[in-house]
Amino acid sequence: MRFFIKLMILVLIAALAGPFFIRGPDGRPLMTLGEAMPDWERMAATAQYQWQRLTGEVKSLASDAGSDDTGGKTRVYKYRDAAGNWVYADEPPPGGDAAVLYVDPNVNIIPPTPPPPSRSAPEQPAADDTADDMEPSLFLPSNAKRALDGAKDVQGVLDDRARQMDDATRDNQ
Asked: In this predicted model, what pLDDT tens digit does every residue of 9-24 receive, in sequence order?
């Protein structure tokens, strides 16, 4: 197995280095080191162009957001439709009769859920409740033994599987 891995690494290195040594129809190598290296000037120019474009868009968005002096709030139009239902939209209705609201997107406008009522003391089971009346649970002694036996069975299966894997890998080496 180790020999195979070493052989594959050698083949990979030969495949990567081969184009630098194999001669093409014109007698020159198929690839030179200069062709393999990236064009740093072109990459830098592209990065600078993208950066300028991105910062220009951010500045444009920032100036648009602050142009109506809303303090970063979202403009919402509130009006009634033909059926008399309230409508909230980001564009005014065709008739133009709508109230303009400014909503801060960073504020939670949904009221919180009230906390549950506090209990003075936890409920105690009645004295006449016995283990026979209760639902089965892992915490009962009879179920604990069954759970432990099941865990031992699972551990046995895992140990057998580990032995099989070791035997299979040992045979291939």
From this structure: 999 999 988 888 888 8
User: Is the Cβ–Cβ distance between 86 and 80 less than 8 Å?
Assistant: yes
For residue 26, with 0-12 CB atoms within 10 Å meaning exposed, 13-18 middle and 19 or more buried, which class applies? exposed
Residues of the chain with pLDDT under 50: 138
User: Model-level pTM?
Assistant: 0.27
Q: Which two tokens stand for residue 144?
A: 């604990």
pLDDT at 5: 94
How far is residue 153's CA from residue 150's CA, in Å, rounded to a whole number? 5
Edge-to-edge strands, sheet with 86-89:
86-89, 74-80, 99-103
- Alpha helices for the chain (secondary structure H): 2-21, 33-36, 40-66, 141-172
Reading the block at residue 168, the tokens are: 């299979």
CB of 88 within 8 A of CB of 76?
yes
> For residue 5, which of 172, 171, 148 has the smallest C-alpha distance?
172
Q: What are phi and psi of 2, to 5 degrees?
A: -65, -35
